[in-house]
Amino acid sequence: MNGDGPLHRLRREGRIVVVGASLAGLRAAETLRDEGFAGSLTLIGDEPYEPYDRPPLSKQVLLGMADADRTALPRRRALDATWRLGVAATGLDMAARRVRLADGDEVPYDRLLIATGVRARPWPREAEAALDGVICLRSRGDGAALARRLAEGPRRVLVIGAGFTGSEIASACRERGVAVTVAERGAAPLVGALGGVVGAVAAELQRAHGVDLRCGVMVTALEGDASGRVRAAQLSDGSTVEADVVVVSLGAQRNTDWLAGSGLGAGPRGIACDAGCRAFDIRGIVTDDIFAAGDVARCPHPLFGYQFLSLEHWGNAVSQARIAAHNMISESTDRLPHLAVPAFWSSQFGVSIKSVGVPTLGTEIVVPQGSLDGGGFVGVYGYQGRVVGAVSFDHARWLPFYEEQIEKAAPFPPPFPTLDRRPDAQRPRDADFPDPSVPTHGPTVTLSGYSPADRRMTFTPAH
Amino acid sequence: MTQSLLHQILDPANRADPYPIYAELRKTPVHHEEDGPFVVSTYYEIRSLLHDPRISSDAHNLVSTGHDPLAEPAQEEQSELPPSFLRLDPPEHDRLRRMTNRHFGPPHSPHRVDGMRGELQGIVTGLIDGIGDPGRIDLVDQFSYPFPVTVICRLLGVPREDEARFHGWADAIAASLDPDPDADPAERGKGAPDARMQLGMYLAGLIEERRKNPGDDMLSELASAKGPDGTLTTMELLSTAALLLIAGHETTVNLVTNGMLTLLRNPDVLQRLRADPRLAVPIVEELLRFEPPVQLVPQRTPLADIEVHGVTIPKGSSLWLVLASGNRDPRRFENPDRFDPDRRDIQHLGLGSGIHSCFGAPLARLEAQFALSELARRLENPRLLEDPPPYRQNAVLRGPRHLSIACDGIRP
């Protein structure tokens, strides 16, 4: 191999910039150094903090078991990096290979990794969103603020949206003995991510723990008192909920606005990239110097019909970051595809929920193990006669088996008896996912796009 | 004619170093001889089967044991007790394990094991203080064996004055699990049924007593708690207590002994442990990979025909999962035959995986960590007097019967 080719120069003295200093950005930076990148490394983050872990913000932090400011991510190694924290990236000049920053600075790069993630979707009416007591939960500061509110013993908390985050917040409220109402536009909690069959179990779980759960309703207005504190919410069924804390948990928006007009294939659905994490430009041509990883990326997954998957999963951020980092400094023949089977977890109301694969792709579900009526279960999702996803409530030890089934494109429904010997274990039912054109709150996977061979490929430009 | 691999595994002559046999075994990931069990020896195949919901632990699902030399009757340890959750499938397994764990580990009892740290330290200190002549120590009889039995007594809440009797029964049962080949076959294991009976009656009495006057020990809680799954019956509680006793010490004794043997064979690591007791954590993890106390899981059977690595294993066949071989699989671990406590990639199979993964794992880890760091700290210039040491017969629960060591003195 030529010891002084462009790749060797890049690895020895190149400039790599990582925009986004959270989980994916940090792990990518560590992988770059692990793999021998000796050039300059710059991490840019809009938050003033070093990378921290978000899952505890809706769990241990709200229970008062952990401080929001002590959630820094463990470091796997020394980085020798330049940190530009508290300064957002505001623009990208692809031709000049420069990232513009909010403070006017420009940072040149030879390779760029975009890991800007997502932000919480805000309450749409600004005046109502500005009321004291109306909170979104995404950042460390949000977590600390909500924990403080809960510790003050509010009379009632209203959670708008029963996705995973909203449900975990409701769970923390109940564990702290705080009265909580959950308003969900869909038919059940978690329905967007897991479908109606499992959603019904989640609804039962919430009600059994004393949550005032209202499904099939929308919050139409928030009301404040004379001092600007939130006081109540109007619901679409005509009812009113009095609450002194309102948590807006309406899912996430991808942080791609800063790329508007750059020519990169970035939009509300994220940054389109190939299976090796290289970003597409708006012409559908893959770049070779810009990569994406984590929540902001959407890339085709061969296991799921090459559909473009955007995953808001902790594990995806880690594995995709490693792949992207490796590919950034590798010859094209040494590059790796991002093939990890998606997985996520949640803990709420004393139940550990875990999932592998892509349940939202499924149309049917079977429950081969355990029972929907209590004691936990495994639900397996099928699409066109093959296994595409699985979810467990307190049955996580079985999931590695179903992960293998997904990897092998095993037949659905599973044609074999299992230890529980449930009589209905092999009878599939409609998984009951909501119509994808009707928005629900908080699905963690979105499927979009088509196979590369599909001539109907469309592109949603940034706006 | 050379011995079949199955016989080589079982042959006590190979007990000191079974790993070359396992390497041979891994050339055929699913090994099958005539009527014998299907023996699975490679890491990924074992891990996959440990999570497979078609694989039963209930001996009633065995169609025929064929010539499985390790087959046991369906009833637990040939006693009159109902099977413990080790030999049950969901949903019964889940119910019993959940009810037991409620009083042992998180989320309901997060402090049970951690709260025993002082107790463990005290027991270890007492046993090392009691070592007489430093010139000839049998680490098994003087330390590794009495340690976990005492721990189980304290965990269950056996009164101190009864501990000696408890040790006596445990000794007799342990001896029956591992017969002395030189003993008269007529006498072999003769005391065991008596010991089981007496231990059972003793525990039944203790359970009755604890139901009336509960303490904060685990047996009291198990006997009196009314959780969402109700209360364990006395029979269920007896088989669970028997399981905790047998599984809790027959394994830990080997973990500690194999650990000290391995450290004495790797004096640089022993030296590092003496300087930094925190190294006990990665050392114990590597030991669980390198010399696991449970070498193989012999009691599984598929509920349907399954295919593993191109081999069809028929429904009801006897299945062995050779954990110790998976732990040395070069497709999974770099330099698998090297003892390396600095190994970072260490997802071993030493404690199993899936729903039957070692129930007592947090306690076993803590016991071994305390034992090894204290032995390293207090024994001055320790050395092996016999290498390899004599091994117990048992191919499943593998470990030295004696470990003769000497040292220059015992530090305070």
UniProtKB/TrEMBL annotation, chain A:
GO molecular function: oxidoreductase activity, acting on NAD(P)H
Signal peptide coordinates: none
This protein's record includes keyword Nucleus: no
Compositionally biased tracts (Basic and acidic residues): 419-432
Cofactor(s) annotated in UniProt: FAD
GO cellular component, one term: cytoplasm
Source species, domain of life: Bacteria
Keyword Cytoplasm among UniProt keywords: no
Keyword terms: FAD, Flavoprotein, Oxidoreductase
Ranges where the FAD/NAD(P)-binding domain occurs: 15-321
Region entry Disordered, spans: 412-463
Alphabetical list of PANTHER family matching this protein: APOPTOSIS-INDUCING FACTOR 1, RIESKE DOMAIN-CONTAINING PROTEIN-RELATED
Record's protein name: Pyridine nucleotide-disulfide oxidoreductase
Organism: Streptomyces phaeofaciens
Lineage: Bacteria, Bacillati, Actinomycetota, Actinomycetes, Kitasatosporales
From TrEMBL, chain B:
GO MF terms held by the record: heme binding; iron ion binding; monooxygenase activity; oxidoreductase activity, acting on paired donors, with incorporation or reduction of molecular oxygen
Claim: Transmembrane is one of the keywords in the record: no
Superkingdom, taxonomy of origin: Bacteria
Segments for region (Disordered): 63-88
Pfam families: p450 (PF00067)
Keyword Iron: yes
UniProt keyword list: Heme, Iron, Metal-binding, Monooxygenase, Oxidoreductase
Family per record: Belongs to the cytochrome P450 family.
Record's protein name: Cytochrome P450
Organism in which the protein naturally occurs: Streptomyces phaeofaciens
